Amino acid sequence: MSDAQRDKGRRVTVKDLARDLGMSVSTVSRAFYPDAVVASETRRLVLERAAALGYRPNPFAQSLITKKTQIVGMVVADLTNPFYPEVMTEMTAMLQEAGMNVMLAAANQPEKIDDAVDLLLTYQPDLVIVLAANMASHAREKCERAGAPCIFFNRLSADGLGFGVTCDNEAGGRLAADHLIDNGHKHLAYVSAFPGASTNVERHRGFCTQAVERGFAPPAVIEAGRFSYEAGYAAGLEAASAGRPLDGVFCANDIVAIGFIAGVQESGRFRVPDDISVVGFDDITMAGWPTHLLTTVAQPLDGMMAATVSLARELAVDRRQDPHILRLPPGRLIERNTTRRRDGGIA
Amino acid sequence: MSDAQRDKGRRVTVKDLARDLGMSVSTVSRAFYPDAVVASETRRLVLERAAALGYRPNPFAQSLITKKTQIVGMVVADLTNPFYPEVMTEMTAMLQEAGMNVMLAAANQPEKIDDAVDLLLTYQPDLVIVLAANMASHAREKCERAGAPCIFFNRLSADGLGFGVTCDNEAGGRLAADHLIDNGHKHLAYVSAFPGASTNVERHRGFCTQAVERGFAPPAVIEAGRFSYEAGYAAGLEAASAGRPLDGVFCANDIVAIGFIAGVQESGRFRVPDDISVVGFDDITMAGWPTHLLTTVAQPLDGMMAATVSLARELAVDRRQDPHILRLPPGRLIERNTTRRRDGGIA
DNA sequence: CTGAAAGCGCTTACAG
DNA sequence: CTGAAAGCGCTTACAG
């Protein structure tokens, strides 16, 4: 029985492995780095024995020297949108398959997100991925000062800085406008969520632009104010009571749309889709449930996650890369039961 | 300008701080440990200067010596239940407030959860919290061998080992039975989710026991098989078509109940609550939405999370504690719109 | 009460 | 190609 195995509670270290193999720790260590110069037979021996003993290098000791931690910080807040939990777990799984670990920074109150990020930075993540959070600019700067570039996923940084992975929300907004217009809708409106969110602004702009280009007046704007069911619901109730003519609505995202529809139905004055068609954005799982069957513009989610993970791998190796924004084409508009053709539709 | 400040990119270290203060690193280090013996004036000076320079001890260097990492591993999988994202982020926020950081282990396929846990263990978490995952026993053993006790949240470990924080699901099942029986329901059924889940088993048992004690036959069991909307939906469709008499249904949890109701409605043969009353379990946010207004047994979520965090703090200090299970009383039954009184009700 | 020294588990110049 | 040595940033006996 080897020394390493005898000592039960303790992890196997390079020293154990070196003694076991009758080599120096330097040689053993080098065997784990493909670029390091070691006799190939030596390397084979080391790796074989390491696997047998269950040796795993201690990442803390490693990072003390290499200044890399293989840790990805993930900042989340404001999880009223079911879009993000899906992304969070799926992307964590992908990052773990790439050998990186995810450390979470979460806050139950927006103003505490800064403390959470501070604590996270203590562990020197190689980079930080920001989901959903309205992270203040100084938080991003703090990350970068600590050597961790930030990738904003879906929603971009308010100041436009940092890395970003998103879809072409403007093109998505255009798809929604085309769908409603092609199906004969005349009275369009946009249900706006958080005004400070790039996603909200861009979807609105695309929807508007396309409507105008196709000869319509700029669509009315209904302010929901936040990306949540409750906000959508209130907006739906209010819009139904306002008495303004309305037959085609594009909502900032799915959860707002689902709330909006409930609000409209609740009003008892109009029905979806009989009187009003509603289009969402994201295609979250819930949108496909028989309960909702929401017509929506899909996000190119797999592509966005793949792009984020691949960018993360690059940044983990070399932080010095110019920040840029990756914008993927939106997914298709998925027609379900919350929109229908009106008289005069051309589609 | 101090040495530390001049050197922009680099973090302030104890050495910097010691030089700045004209003390030894030992003394500086001790100042951060309340139990260490240092002149109180010296400690004051150190802490003051540390705050000014933004010094934060490097947790990797610390953990190399102390063998504590202040890292909590959180294992998640199978996130079809919206209950868990809420818990995950809220509990992360609470743990961060207690100075601990959360590292995630996620897998998009159940069989990969083991690799994810292995990678996680590399970072030597002080303990592991298991959410939702059907973590195999050997994974728990692996954690414990690596020095990280496991806390199972909500759903207990299949082998009953490890720490656990859950609510008294059996009492919750009884509440559901009482509510339905008090309101005159005669034909009860339980919609069963994952048969291997302690929550499923216990809720079923409580519901059954209480019905029998009150003079009813053991309620029928409708197998949904999983804790998901889709599973509930299929069960609802099937139950509505089966033609068996049915007027009061208790579902394994909210998301199953929401799916079940949609399935029943879809069948067109019965309506909720006019023909069939449905009770869920959890009181997730969605249950309170006007779309659903689900009658449900609430989880004592705040209590469960507080208990978990406090147990985590204890275990982070001393791992040697006998594993035990904390079982909190269930929350109230919240009556909403998916149940109604039938003739003969006594309530 | 404080400081010099050893050491946690690694990596990486530097010799040989 | 390999090994001895230094060092990453800390903590903690051990002297004094």
From TrEMBL, chains A, B:
Pfam families found in the cross-reference section: LacI, Peripla_BP_3
Which PROSITE patterns does its entry note? HTH_LACI_2
Q: Which organism is it from?
A: Pseudoxanthobacter soli DSM 19599
Kindly list the GO molecular function terms attached to this UniProt entry: DNA-binding transcription factor activity; transcription cis-regulatory region binding
Q: Which residues form the HTH lacI-type domain?
A: 12-66
Which SUPFAM superfamilies does this chain map to? lambda repressor-like DNA-binding domains, Periplasmic binding protein-like I
Q: What is the lineage of its organism?
A: Bacteria, Pseudomonadati, Pseudomonadota, Alphaproteobacteria, Hyphomicrobiales
Q: Which UniProt keywords apply?
A: DNA-binding, Repressor, Transcription, Transcription regulation
Q: Does the keyword Manganese apply?
A: no
- InterPro entries in UniProt: HTH_LacI (IPR000843), LacI/GalR-like_sensor (IPR046335), Lambda_DNA-bd_dom_sf (IPR010982), Peripla_BP_I (IPR028082)
Q: What is this protein called?
A: Transcriptional regulator, LacI family
